[in-house]
Specification:
Elements lengths: L9 E2 L4 E2 L1 H11 L1 H36 L1 E3 L1 E3 L2 E17 L2 E5 L4 E6 L6 E2 L4 E5 L2 H26 L3 H33 L5 H30 L3 H27 L1 E3 L4 E6 L6 E2 L4 E6 L4 E7 L1 H6 L5 E6 L2 E14 L6 E7 L1 H6 L5 E18 L4 E2 L5 E8 L6 E14 L2 E6 L6 E3 L11 E4 L4
Parallel strand pairs: 3-24
Antiparallel strand pairs: 1-2, 4-23, 5-14, 5-18, 6-13, 7-9, 7-12, 8-11, 9-10, 11-13, 14-17, 15-16, 15-18, 16-17, 18-22, 19-20, 20-21, 20-23, 21-22, 21-24
């Protein structure tokens, strides 16, 4: 531009100056303003550069933040799961007995009272036995006499008795000879009619009578020499045995007059006192075996089939757990509960804390057939229409890039910190295990754990 052509005099803030003067004057006068304008321009340029750098850094950070590191688990299918079911029952004593006398009598002594502990075989009460004692004395005397007679028969006759019988035989033999000789003389006289016929017949009768006596004596001698007949000994043994049986029966009556504890336990009830005439089979005590307790619990029929005797179980009461052993599975069905009763023998520790009649519980696992996948509880987020959702890690568009894919699932069962689910899942899927509230569908992630 040719400044010379400009008017030599121009107004500049009401002054007539040349263009050069105007420029020089303006620069001098407005130098601070120009400096401010220049500095402001440079600062704007720097700010723009910084803003671009900061925007680039934010974008880089957002890119990194979108690739969030996650922990995953590879899921595997299952066909069933074990579910714990709780069943209740009662604590019962292993044995409870209503103790009674088997015979009637007057109660003269009661040794124990309600609440007392007793040991097996301990005498608890007694009946009067006066008439039984008398009967026993009589039987013992009869037995002694019968036994003496049996001993005599077994020993046989004494030698002195045999000697006396032998002498009797010799005496009868001598007398018989004398009578025979006299009879022969009378026979000669009778032939000559010297004596009457009646006298002759009388001597003949005397001979025959003497002969009979001699035969009897010889028989006794033979019997004594041979000893006692075995049949006679057997008969006497039977008499002795009968008396022994009578004494044994008497001893049973005496034993029945003494009531003893059939097992160790505690007296729960006492029904009568001394002086009462007790009829037979009327309870006097109720004895409970409190050292051995059992749990009687009803379970479903199908579950009872899978239980085995002798297996170890655990039962609970008031927050305490006790060991138990499955003792029996009763064969009958309870008509009220429609369950089968199982009997569990509790350990000795239970007897210190439990009493019969308390309600006790048992947890039994049963296999439920269902197909699904186990997931950590932290892998689920609430979805829509009552369903739940989980995030599966899948391959992205680029190599070594992973993105999230939301899967809808249905919860089948919860066990502690695990849940059994089914839905849009397949075996081998990588499911995010926690922190899913920070995630979104199609978000890029980095797997922290090894695939």
């Amino acid at each position: 531009m040719n400044f010379s052509k400009l008017r030599p005099k121009s107004l500049f803030f009401h002054e007539n100056l040349t263009f050069r003067q105007i420029v020089v004057t303006g620069v001098k006068r407005y130098y601070p303003v120009l400096v401010v304008i220049f500095v402001t321009g440079i600062a704007g340029v720097c700010w723009s550069i910084a803003e671009i750098a900061y925007s680039t850094e934010i974008k880089s950070d957002n890119s990194k933040r979108q690739r969030m590191p996650v922990d995953v688990v590879e899921i595997k299918p299952v066909n069933s799961f074990l579910r714990k079911r709780t069943y209740t029952g009662k604590v019962e004593a292993a044995r409870i007995s209503e103790l009674a006398f088997e015979r009637s009598g007057k109660l003269i002594n009661v040794v124990v009272d309600e609440g007392d502990s007793v040991q097996a075989g301990m005498v608890l009460a007694n009946l009067s036995t006066r008439h039984l004692d008398v009967i026993r004395l009589k039987l013992e005397a009869e037995l002694a006499a019968a036994q003496a007679k049996l001993d005599e028969l077994i020993a046989g006759p004494r030698s002195q008795t045999i000697a006396v019988t032998e002498a009797e035989v010799r005496q009868l033999s001598a007398k018989l000879k004398n009578l025979e000789a006299n009879h022969k003389r009378n026979q000669q006289l009778s032939k000559r009619n010297a004596i009457s016929k009646s006298v002759f017949e009388e001597t003949q009768y005397d001979v025959e009578q003497q002969q009979a006596q001699l035969d009897a004596a010889k028989s006794r001698l033979s019997e004594l020499q041979e000893g006692t007949r075995k049949e006679k000994i057997a008969a006497q043994k039977a008499v002795v045995a009968n008396l022994d049986a009578a004494l044994a029966d008497n001893q049973v009556d005496l034993d029945d007059a003494r009531l003893t504890a059939p097992f160790s336990g505690r007296i729960s009830k006492r029904y009568s006192d001394e002086g009462t005439v007790i009829p037979p089979n009327v309870p006097l005590f109720r004895l409970v075996e409190d050292q051995k307790l059992e749990a009687h619990i009803g379970v479903p029929v199908d579950m009872a089939k899978d239980l085995k005797q002798g297996t170890k179980k655990k039962v609970q009461l008031n927050g305490k757990t006790f060991d138990a052993t499955l003792k029996a599975i009763l064969p009958e069905l309870d008509p009220v509960t429609r369950t089968r009763e199982i009997v569990l023998a509790l350990n000795s520790k239970a007897a210190l804390h439990l009493v019969p009649g308390q309600v006790i519980r048992i947890e039994i696992e049963e296999a439920i057939p269902v197909q699904g996948f186990w997931l950590p509880l932290g892998a689920l987020a609430r979805g829509e229409r009552g369903l739940w959702s989980a995030y599966s890690v899948i391959d992205g568009k680029n190599e070594s890039e992973f993105v999230l894919e939301k899967r809808q699932v249905e919860v089948l069962h919860t066990a502690g910190d695990r849940v059994l689910v089914r839905g849009t899942l397949t075996a081998g899927d990588l499911i995010v295990v926690d922190g899913i509230h920070k995630l979104a569908n199609n978000q890029r992630v980095v797997i922290k754990s090894n695939r």
